[in-house]
Write a structure and sequence with these properties.
single chain; three-stranded mixed beta sheet; about 65% helix; elongated
Length: about 575
């Protein structure tokens, strides 16, 4: 009875969202610990880019040459792990979650959470120039999907739960609960319905509260106060937005161009590919050790204005190359971190240029670096709301919001003109998968069914049946025997008639009448026919021998109405 109540109704969904948020938070904290441990193992430091050029503390005789061997050693570990454990753990993770939500009803294999977390930690710790966001989104989503599948939630609920897991993961990773909500709604779910919003918000808040208790409440970047010095600066911020669109789209193109090149060149076993490709990555890290791992300390120094324009541009191009190469050789990690890094380098370079052209009338380069971070992400992912809110929360710097909005809007708009897809949807488009609503498979009964109402025992008395109807507000309820097999459906009108006739000796089984039973995968046309034959009552949905949902004419109407609305066509 408890599980039935948990699976059905809004209260059950919100309770699950809180639990998923807690689980995602613990997963995110654990993943951060894994990354630090792996980085200390392969580099000798908790974050090597905070000690650029230093030798491995346990291998001082190797000098800085250890960075060539670190990606190779890491590849020998995570390459077989991905190949044998879960091949979908390869790459940057978010497209796989988007695909699972849109096409597979939110179903993700439970093992993905473990394989993705270990593989990504080894990859980043071994110098892989990728971020933490993609892996933790996939981990949080996989944990949520596993819980939903265990409870046999219908696809509509399972999708919400997966989005809640993604929001909880991002919230805990970046201490950004508001941005995490928009990330999940804008990118993963593409749905701002009230029920979706409530579940995702609860998961994000729960996750953030737990992570702050464990890790402390600190902004992602500690920054001085910035402000717009002159209205003329908005022209520079606008130019930065347009450049960010070019850079964001360029990064997306380079990412898949290098991946294609690696696919064409590699002829050996896939499990060995990361180790062999690690030699190339190690060569890049030897030339630019600032690109080792996520590289947030380097980003901090760029925001502080510690690099020349030339070196900023070198780091920008180098990060695009190193991140693309890490993914191309079969690595596992996110692209959100690299886009922040690339955006900071671009913004700081534009800020230096603004100072050179109009000294005394431009904000410090750090302000432009912050705006560049959001603008490049908007140009690459085309999620403007998430970009604005994310940078604000990561920095806690309100004074850059107006310039940020200008740059992000121009970056997202120009990106749409430059490319039909985004850094996330391009991976799916290359496989022939279009997430646009007009191209999705027709909805089936299991994708639109609601959670099955708690069933009535066959021997339930008339008083018990009446109390259930009075408490639940249903038009009909299923009846099952002692073995959980469906005996029929009790309509509310039959209960009312029995009460008027004072038929106190009847049971739920006596009141039950047979109705058609729908199988998972049947079309909505077949569902509508079954509901009509059942006299307008709810009809149960069954997968194999297990009841998994309940569908009414209202559910069918709502699904048809949603399907007729204009959908997204480019991953937004």
């Amino acid at each position: 009875m408890f599980w039935d109540r948990l699976r059905g109704g809004s209260a059950g969904l919100l309770a699950l969202a809180v639990a998923i948020g807690a689980g995602a938070s613990l997963g995110a904290v654990g993943f951060r610990w894994l990354v630090v441990a792996a980085t200390e193992l392969f580099s000798g430091w908790s974050d090597y880019t905070a000690h650029v050029g230093a030798a491995h503390r346990l291998l001082p005789w190797a000098g800085r040459w250890f960075v060539v061997a670190a990606p190779v050693a890491a590849g020998l570990l995570y390459g077989p792990l991905i190949q044998l454990g879960a091949r979908e753990a390869r790459g940057h993770g978010v497209p796989e979650v988007m695909y699972a939500v849109t096409v597979h009803g939110g179903r993700i294999r439970p093992r993905v959470a473990m394989v993705k977390s270990l593989a990504s930690a080894l990859c980043i710790g071994g110098g892989g120039s990728v971020g933490r966001e993609g892996p933790i989104v996939q981990v949080g989503s996989a944990l949520a999907s596993a819980a939903g599948q265990l409870l046999r939630l219908p696809d509509s609920r399972l999708r919400l739960l997966v989005a809640a897991g993604a929001a909880g993961a991002v919230s805990a990773t970046f201490n950004a609960p508001i941005a995490a909500v928009f990330f999940a709604l804008e990118l993963i779910l593409a749905d701002f319905a009230v029920e979706s919003f409530a579940a995702v918000v609860l998961a994000s808040v729960t996750s953030s509260a737990i992570s702050r208790a464990l890790l402390g409440d600190h902004p992602f970047l500690a920054l001085p106060t910035f402000h717009v010095v002159s209205p003329v600066e908005y022209l520079w911020y606008g130019a930065l937005g347009l450049l960010a669109a070019v850079v964001g789209v360029g990064f997306s193109r380079m990412l898949y161009l290098i991946e294609d090149a690696c696919d064409r060149c590699w002829r050996g076993p896939e499990w060995l590919r990361p180790a062999v490709g690690g030699l190339l990555l190690g060569g890049v890290l030897l030339a630019l050790p600032e690109l080792y791992g996520v590289g947030y300390p380097v980003l901090d120094r760029a925001v502080a204005g510690n690099y020349s324009v030339v070196f900023l541009l070198v780091l920008l191009i180098g990060k695009m190359l190193a991140a693309s190469l890490t993914i191309g050789i079969g690595g596992s990690g996110g692209v959100f971190g690299p886009t922040l890094f690339i955006g900071a380098m671009l913004g700081a370079a534009v800020g230096d240029a603004a100072h050179s052209v109009m000294p005394g009338l431009a904000a410090p380069p750090g302000a432009y670096a912050l705006v560049g971070m959001g603008a490049v992400f908007a140009g690459a992912a085309r999620t403007p709301i998430t970009a604005v809110v994310m940078i604000f929360e990561l920095t806690g710097e309100y004074s850059v919001v107006l310039p940020l909005m200008v740059a992000v809007a121009l970056a997202a708009g120009a990106s749409r003109l430059l490319s039909a897809d985004t850094i996330y949807t391009r991976k799916l488009h290359r496989r022939g998968i279009d997430l646009g609503r007009d191209h999705r498979p027709a909805p089936t009964v299991d994708t639109v069914a609601r959670a099955l109402p708690a069933a009535l025992p066959a021997q339930a008395s008339l008083d018990e049946v009446a109390q259930r109807f009075a408490a639940g507000g249903h038009d009909a309820l299923p009846v099952v025997d002692d073995h959980g097999r469906l005996r029929g459906v009790v309509p509310a009108v039959e209960v009312e008639r029995a009460l008027r006739d004072h038929a106190s000796d009847v049971t739920a089984a006596d009141l039950a009448s047979g109705v058609p039973v729908l199988r998972a995968g049947q079309s909505l046309d077949e569902a509508l026919d079954a509901v009509v034959r059942a006299g307008g009552l709810g009809v149960p949905v069954q997968r194999e021998d297990t009841l998994v949902g309940w569908i009414t004419h209202r559910d069918i109407l709502a699904a048809v109405t949603r399907d007729r609305r204009p959908g997204r066509t480019d991953g937004q």
